[in-house]
Amino acid sequence: MKIRLFALSLLITLVFTGCKDDEVTPVPVTPAEIKLDYYIESYDVPGLGFVPQMKVSYEYNETGKISKYTVLSYHPDSGSLAEVRYFVFSYVLNRVDNIKGFLAGANSPYVEYSYEYLVNDAVSKIRENNYAAGVNSEANFSYNAANNSIKVAYTFSNGGSFEYEFNYESENILNDKTTRGAQLCSNGQYTYDQHINPFRNLGYVDYMLNNLSVNNKLTEAVSYVACAFPTLVPVSYAYEYNEGGYPTFVTTSYKSGSAITAARKEIFYK
After folding, report:
1. Considering the domain 36-269 in this protein, what is its CATH number?
2. 113, β-bridge pairs
3. Where are the domains of the chain?
4. What is the DSSP letter of 29?
5. Where are the alpha helices (DSSP H) in 213-261?
């Protein structure tokens, strides 16, 4: 079971509350001004340089909300693209109600996510029905405004479980930890720039919580103690920005010892 939540991956923004007046104010998020069109991710392969791995493209409905995103993979020999999977979104009361994931050419979803909310529109639960794996799960959210923290408890139909908890400031995750019962799996600390995170602008909480912070991550220091040990561990990020302050290139540097030392993401906007 994959324990770390921030791996290589709100239609309601996850609610952050309780920020102090003396906190650093992030760049305002303005989803209506600019939207993600697509991005291309490449890995720095030894002897070959940056080799494209995948493309992710986004579509929006008439109200400007995301309606679909598609994941395509590159064939290195021909340089051509092939669709791998896509996800479609449905809404109730202007909030995401359901996300269905389909493999290319399939008529039935291989995974499906359903959402529940609190009265303040914060996400309270996300259910995952993973038809391909045969294991279902759910994420239950608990909010603690007094100490600026959010805890998400994941439970699985095969009996597994873990908890992810983080503290935030100015709508950015400053530190987090993952636990399985009384066992600490990992803990991390993060820093950010003062530019807009375009993936936060997608406006939905994804099941693995990759799109939460309002600004772009600059560094991360994560200690993996138990439970799972990923092969790629990011340590820092470098950005190029357009005139509107949105990142156009993101270079991720990974901890030494892995076969891949860096990745690059080129981002395009509508």
Report:
1. 2.40.160
2. 99, 128
3. 36-269
4. P
5. none
